[in-house]
Design goal:
One of its GO terms (biological process) is post-chaperonin tubulin folding pathway. It is found in: Cytoplasm. This protein has 340 residues and is α/β, with parallel strands linked by helices. It is built from 6 helices and 17 strands.
Length: 340
């Protein structure tokens, strides 16, 4: 009898333990199903939010793109002053659209991102084409002063470049004076604030030159620059660089577009964002140069001295989110130029 009682007691304990385990497994399974259902619900909600954000981005981006295209279309048949103002407005709006795209990258698909980047490239290309057509350089009449011509045509070839008085460019009719420095090799060019004040400055086909532009020009265009050192005062609007190599540039400006440039250092003060395209080996560092009238030139230019986005660079050839572009880099502090 005692043995039977003990067996019944053991059997009861075992049965009770097995029921508890079954109940525990059922509870865990129920909890897992509830958690899985909650995750699916959150995933659906996240997808809905992402789709809603994507829809907002597409409608906003397309509306702003159409607005910029209308601006560019209005340049047809307009006079020079209107075209200049319209192009500047279109450039600012396009840069703002670029920032909007950058801020929206996290929830865009690769297809949406690629389409938006292609649209931006077309806007910048259209703007550049209109600028070339409506504001052609061939309208400039090159009239060099005799003293300047003598010095530029036969620059001394020495280890230390000499100062030359560069060619002045007058727009025909001569209502405004433009500055142009072209086809120079191994010379030093210096201009004062009075000579370049609010002018459109063009530097083209310069080799082994040192250029100092003290003052505040309206725009600065640099093309085919090879092994040069160029320091310019605050540019009130845009700087355009094309086909530059092995050079050192120091520029404060509102906007910067750099094309086809290699192995070049840019010491930059910029109030918007710099743009590079088809470039490699370009280094950026903050503008730290100084000269006696720099403070006055900043005031004339209207640039914000305390706002410098020198390291915020958009590479139109690099769309990988979260991965730095291999085409440009920040210049290490130890390698930065300090003596100008």
């Amino acid at each position: 009898m005692e043995a039977m009682a003990e067996h019944s007691q053991e059997t009861g304990v075992t049965g009770e333990s097995g029921a508890d385990k079954i109940q525990e497994r059922l509870q865990r399974r129920h909890q897992a199903r509830a958690e899985d259902a909650e995750r699916k619900k959150e995933a659906q909600a996240s997808q809905s939010v992402a789709e809603e954000k994507s829809g907002y981005f597409s409608s906003t981006f397309n509306a702003e793109r159409a607005s910029i295209e209308d601006l560019l279309s209005s340049c047809s048949g307009a006079d020079r002053a209107v075209v200049t103002q319209t192009l500047e407005e279109a450039t600012v709006k396009t840069l703002q659209l670029q920032k909007f795209l950058n801020d929206s990258m996290l929830f865009l698909t690769q297809y949406e991102l690629r389409r938006a980047q292609d649209s931006l490239k077309k806007l910048f290309t259209s703007s550049a084409d209109i600028r070339e057509e409506a504001l052609p350089k061939k309208k400039f009449a090159f009239r060099a002063r005799s003293k300047a011509t003598d010095k530029v045509s036969a620059p001394p070839v020495t280890d230390t470049p000499t100062v030359t008085d560069s060619t002045k460019v007058d727009v025909a009719p001569a209502e405004s004076v433009q500055c142009c420095f072209s086809n120079m090799d191994n010379v030093c060019v210096i201009k004062t604030a009075e000579e370049i004040h609010k002018q459109d400055v063009l530097l083209t086909h310069l080799t082994n030159c040192k250029v100092r532009l003290f003052g505040s020009p309206s725009t600065l265009h640099m093309t085919h620059i090879d092994n040069c050192e160029i320091l310019c005062g605050p540019v009130s609007s845009s700087v355009f660089i094309d086909h530059c190599r092995n050079s050192t540039l120091a520029i404060p400006c509102q906007q910067l577009r750099t094309h086809n440039t290699t192995d070049t250092q840019v010491y930059l003060h910029i109030t918007s964002r710099a743009i590079v395209e088809d470039c490699r080996g370009v280094g950026f560092a903050p503008f730290t140069c100084s000269y006696p009238t720099l403070d006055e030139d900043f005031i004339v230019s209207g640039l914000d001295r305390h706002r410098n986005n020198w390291s915020q660079v958009d590479d139109f050839n690099w769309l990988a989110v979260g991965t730095p572009s291999p085409n440009w880099a920040v210049i290490p502090e130890a390698d930065r130029k300090t003596n100008w």
